[in-house]
Design brief:
Layout: E1 4-8, H1 14-21, E2 25-30, E3 35-36, E4 39-40, E5 44-47, E6 63-66, H2 71-76, H3 81-92, H4 97-100, H5 102-118, E7 124-128, H6 133-136, E8 141-143, E9 146-150, E10 160-161, E11 164-165, E12 168-169, H7 188-194, E13 204-205, H8 228-232, H9 237-247, H10 251-260
Parallel strand pairs: 1-2, 1-6, 2-5, 6-7
Antiparallel strand pairs: 3-4, 7-9, 8-9, 10-13, 11-12
Helix pairs in contact: 1-10
Length: 267
């Protein structure tokens, strides 16, 4: 039997690409279908709010993966007065922390319900940014700026974050030299301006220094044919495309997790 995997907050399918490579049948869930040129989710996608899901639907799953939206965590990690004011409001109780962590917490609720329905443990791996840690607890491991919670394997490879791309040093949140904007390619200067405010999420590598570095981002330099006005707006298609690509789980990481939890089955 082909193992079933569930991808919550699927986005462009970074988790799914690794799962498919390991022979899983994958169903993704998201509130929108991300299609940017040739970049789109590569498996069956259900358009549904993850908060409305019940885990009993996934009692036959072999693995659940998730990448809840991280924008607010990332924003509060920035050294801006407004970002710090929002953080203070959460800490003082002016804002509800439960609402902040609702999308993250839903993953573990769904896992618990799935396990109860299946009568067995179904592993869950959740990815998010370092800035989520003050609100959801310390991550168990990180691959560059991709932090993992849940059933993270005890044995994970040593990672090496690529220090420079296009002459820019990529540093994670909270580390010396961190800058919230960093893109490579010949259109780098223009991209810096067009995508101002989108934090770069540097990837690591295990065996190939070039693998996963910034694949796919150069294509967005063309801004997908948008007009001058459209491509510089905060809701522009090109900006959303770049943000979706940045959030995409590196293939190497996704495939390693998929392989680790792949059950034995006849081929």
């Amino acid at each position: 039997m082909t193992p079933l995997a569930i991808d919550l907050y699927a986005g462009l399918g970074g988790w799914t690409e690794g799962l498919l490579a390991e022979g899983y049948y994958v169903i993704g869930f998201d509130v929108e279908r991300h299609v940017y040129g040739g970049h789109r989710y590569p498996a069956q996608l259900v358009l549904q709010d993850v908060l409305t899901l019940h885990g009993r639907q996934f009692k036959d799953a072999s693995l659940i993966v998730a990448s809840p939206p991280c924008q607010e965590y990332s924003y509060m990690a920035m050294p801006w007065s407004r970002a710090k004011a929002i953080e203070a409001e959460y800490r003082s109780g002016v804002r509800d922390v439960k609402k902040l962590t609702a999308l993250f917490d839903a993953c573990f609720r769904i896992q618990r319900e799935a396990c109860e329905a299946a009568g067995r443990h179904i592993p869950l791996v959740v990815e998010n940014v370092r800035g989520a840690q003050p609100w959801v607890g310390r991550s168990r491991w990180n691959f560059g700026s991709y932090h993992l919670w849940g059933d993270v394997p005890a044995l994970m490879p040593i990672t090496h974050v690529k220090p420079k791309v296009g002459g820019i040093t990529f540093c994670g949140y909270g580390t010396p030299g961190y800058r919230p904007v960093a893109f490579n390619g010949t259109a780098e200067a223009r991209l810096r301006e067009d995508y101002k405010g989108i934090p770069h999420r540097p990837t690591g590598h295990w065996t190939n220094p070039a693998e996963n570095a910034d694949e796919g981002r150069k294509g967005f330099a063309a801004r997908l044919g948008e007009s001058e006005h459209a491509r510089t707006g905060s809701q522009s298609k090109a900006r959303k495309a770049a943000a979706a690509q940045i959030a995409k789980i590196p293939f190497t990481l996704a495939r390693y997790i998929a392989h680790t939890f792949k059950p034995g089955y006849a081929t």
